[in-house]
Amino acid sequence: MSSVVLTLVGIVIIIAGYLIYSKYLANRVYKLSPSYTTPSHEFNDGVDYVPTNKFVLWGHHFTSVAGAAPIVGPAVAVIWGWLPAFLWVTLGTVFFAGMHDMGALWASVRNKGQSIGSLSGRYIGSRGRNLFLIVIFLLLLMVNAVFAVVIAELLIAQPTAVIPVWGAIVVAVLIGQAIYRLKWNLPLVSIVGVVALYALILVGDRFPIELPDTILGLSAGAFWIIVLFLYAGVASTLPVWMLLQPRDYINGLQLFIGLGILYAAILISSPTIVAPAVNENPPPGTPGLVPLLFVTIACGAISGFHGMVSSGTSSKQLDKETDARFVGYFGAVGEGLLALGTIIVVTAGFETLASWEETYSAFNEGGVVTFVTSGGSILNEGLGIPVSLSATILATMAVLFAATTMDTGVRLQRYIVEEIGGLMGLRFSTFVATVIVIVFGLGLSFGADVTGSGEGGMVIWPLFGTTNQLLAALTLAIMTVMLVRKRRPYLPVLLPLLFVLVMTVYALLVQIVEFYNEGNWLLLGMDIVILVAAVWVVVESATAIGRARKEEPEPEDEVAEAGTRDESGR
């Protein structure tokens, strides 16, 4: 199979989704209004609620939702063949992810910037909200612990990425000052920032930083994990304009350019896809394609974490409601393109089918390292970039994606801790809530790993995908209730909801049997808790949808009706 043909077909499908389907959703389903007063203006506090240029906000949203998952998921899932992964990524981006991310933004903006967890109380009920918060807390705990491990492993495996990864923080702080304090021209700041980031990549490739095996009695990986949690804790308490926004924006530009470089190398070198379209002889122990494909590839098709970002940080920075189409749906497009590129790289970046089968000799063998090594060979062949520098570029891309997700994840979990505290009659300060998040994250990282390496996040990795997809289904349930109440078209949301829900519950049941047979009581217990919460919230959601169908429709005020116009106001 020609990698060029597959690449072009995938790009056309995803871009067509943005140009056509997202416009239908914006105008007919969500009815985005350019005159609606968004929470960023209504509650502007200069810390969390900050009206933001849509391009800057897109950078924050795109890099926050992407993380390493759209690399890890597809890089693992191609073990079933490239065709199932390709179809789920392309069609998932168009009909699932874009709809979900833009809809979560709309739902939060129409409810004063409240998180999805808070909205569940209003639209599903208090019992549903409490269970919803459990699922959200567990998911964010997994996200922070898992990405800390992914980043640490990449910094150790690719020491040339250390300087550009940490240097990007300094660049981001300077960009934030240039945009908000000095009021510099955004295109000029963008160019300078991107040049600085790529200059850091060149410096890092020349001067790798490799930590000793033991630091203060800790392994190098454990040391990096602690540093990452401490950094994310500090970053989560700073005003969004100071670090989070500019870091995500400039990383978004750099990463999109990196994607462009990767796609250019694919088009020029035109490597042959050596992996089978459908792998009829997967390695022993490989689980069934259905339902595991649909939870292995979450980010890149649909992801519940995106709803947390949309309603947790992005909705508080949206300048105009109509920007939700570009920020939310096009953010999903960016992630879909990353997942598509990953599929091409990990199926065409090998000399022969035998070498691909050697790498994919067991389930979960593929991952970020496979993406970096095979992608590096394609960059070298297509653009003549030295193998070492190619690996540095791709490793830096992967780490920056994961790091920006971890930044946002810690901030979001802090919001959840404060919300849970409020339900318990406790009022946590920002500092106390952040400390609680860090303690839980480090506790999971080290407590769930008997080796003391801090990689406990990977112990619960098998549950990450199912929990993530469950949260997506629950977010879609809230959106469905809102649309039914407003008598809007709701099938574009309800049908994906049913599909994701069935696959996720199916996967949870499969994993319960697997964990029981393995005697993995930690994962078995967590799986049962998540399954019970899922079933309970599903019942509450179905009841809420039924009530909404019988109630009088919510009146559409003049501002809401204006959403039938296009983004120019016509």
Structure notes:
This protein has 570 residues and is mostly helical. It has one domain. 73% of the residues lie in helices and 1% in strands. It is built from 23 helices and 2 strands. It has a two-stranded antiparallel ribbon. Helix 11 runs antiparallel to helix 17 and helix 20 packs antiparallel against helix 21. The radius of gyration is 22 Å and the shape is globular. This is Carbon starvation protein. Belongs to the peptide transporter carbon starvation (CstA) (TC 2.A.114) family. Keywords: Cell membrane, Membrane, Transmembrane, Transmembrane helix.
Concise overview:
The protein is an all-alpha fold and 570 residues long. It is 73% helix and 1% strand. It contains 23 helices and 2 strands.
